[in-house]
Amino acid sequence: MGCGTSKDSGNVEHAVERQEGKKEEEVKGGCKEHKTFHLIHFNDVYNINEKDTEPVGGAARFITAVEKYKDLNPLVLFSGDIFAPSKLSQTMKGKQMIPFLDKVGIDVTCVGNHDFDFGVYEFTLLKDKTNFPWLLSNVWDSKTKKIFGDCTDHHIMEHQGFKIGFIGLAELEWLGVCPYIEEEDYDYEDFVKCARRWCEDLKSQGCDLIIALTHMRVKNDKHLADQVPELDMILGGHDHFEADFNIHNTLVLKSGTDFRQFSLINVEMNCPEERLQEEKSALVVDHDKKRIIGWERVEITKQFDPNPEMQEIVDGYWKEVALELEKIAGNTGVDLDARFSEIRTKETNISNLVADAMRLMLDTDVCLINSGSLRIDDIIEKGILRWKHVDTLFPMQDDTVIIRIKGEDLLEAFENSVSALPKMDGCFPCISGAKIKFDSSKPAFERILEASINGQPIQDNELYTMATKEYLYDGKDGFKSLVNAEMIADGEDCPTLDTLFINFFQLMTKRNSKWFSTKKKRVERGLEIIHNEDRHLLTEDEEGNPTDQKYFTIYPKVDGRLVNVAEE
């Protein structure tokens, strides 16, 4: 699992040179009047359709709610994760969000990890269809030395007579598990060092207020506030809950998730002392800066009627998805047997394919998921593999995680996975990187005879990295020993299971040759998974001419990684 390159020396100097050399467009500020202005903040939105329970959310109602406050002339700020994951993003690859972004009127955003779920190049195509800056201040492309993802390192704007500076910060933890980002692709600067550097610069440019838009865990946001009190606000994403903190008179705020709420922030500047003395309810009352900052939650309930134009777009997308699902994902040279009677009792080629793909994309020693994750209950016949097959195989959006687990806990998990036999149970394993020999005629939890990872017997006290589902890590389906493991990357850092599988097919499909050629090592491993030596298999049109789209044919097989001696 990649961890990036720290930017503690020369690269930072290079960044500072660019920073100092860049001429800012003249933005006035420095208003001395006692004034109040407003901000709207939200983060981590995925499903544009509304939910069944309140607050129902939905993109169409969200727009109506934002429009309710348009008389306040608020700045609209976003803290990352919008293009994926969702059912629509499986087929539309993020473009389903562009109409919403056009209508909601975002002024500034930072980038989130799931915005890269379909690759950096795909993100830049989506970003270029928007009309506001995407910030990422502490990550660089290691080759070009430009801001990663063609983002912007900062933004300055005037609002209500005040000059406001923005930066966007990412944590290192999620960069290492983005499916299309390799460790050698980026240089990373510690977010505290980066924030200090930019606060000094933005203050020198006369900014009255400095706001960090972040996509980090709340502990990192709180650490940032503690270490960089020069920041006036830290408006964060990545966490899917609401939270607020006052740390050294810096507002740290999380604003919920999935179009179900946003934060309306009130900023009162140049307050006279008597006003500061009388304020009792605001979270931040800063006597030194003569400033009051408060906020309120706005829940997107059915009291907000859906925006008609947006609702029409949402409804139309589901019709478009039906057409997208008929498109070709690839080819299979063998039948893929996903019948419950098979995948829940024995090793199958599709179980191996899914587990291998997951281990490849998350780059771990071993992968273990339950066969109940595969829901198609049918044979996918040899021939064209369409996206509708993938959609039916993974109808649920299962969060995936990377954990570090002791050998003894892993062995107990393996015992659980074969404990229900001969019952056809969803806890039966799909594994990769490991081999298990067991005897289903023995009592439950005494069945494992041999277990190895990469050909070496599993040692009780050895630590192994493992890809699995968050559902199993929580101890569900009998996998109680997994709760003892250390979390390395959680469901917010890792793509969902369906997205991982889609990403695997896109990795093996030569859609972007420039990108593809830089991922040779991972592609070679992928070729081993699909057992295909033909690296240039093209589809043809009706006249026999090669098309622009290249598809690989997969040949997954049963290779003896699960051996039940009771059936030999």
Automatic annotation (TrEMBL):
Organism of provenance: Euplotes crassus
Region described as Disordered: spans on this chain: 1-28
Gene Ontology BP term (one): nucleotide catabolic process
PANTHER family assigned: 5'-NUCLEOTIDASE, 5'-NUCLEOTIDASE-RELATED
Chain ranges of the 5'-Nucleotidase C-terminal domain: 339-482
Biased composition (Basic and acidic residues): 10-28
UniProt xrefs under InterPro entries: 5'-Nucleotdase_C, 5'-Nucleotdase_C_sf, 5_nucleotidase/apyrase, Calcineurin-like_PHP, Metallo-depent_PP-like
Molecular function GO labels: hydrolase activity; nucleotide binding
Family stated for the protein in its record: Belongs to the 5'-nucleotidase family.
Keyword Nucleotide-binding carried by entry: yes
Pfam families: 5_nucleotid_C, Metallophos
Keywords noted in UniProt: Hydrolase, Nucleotide-binding, Signal
Positions of the Calcineurin-like phosphoesterase domain: 39-240
Protein name: 5'-nucleotidase
Source taxon at top rank: Eukaryota
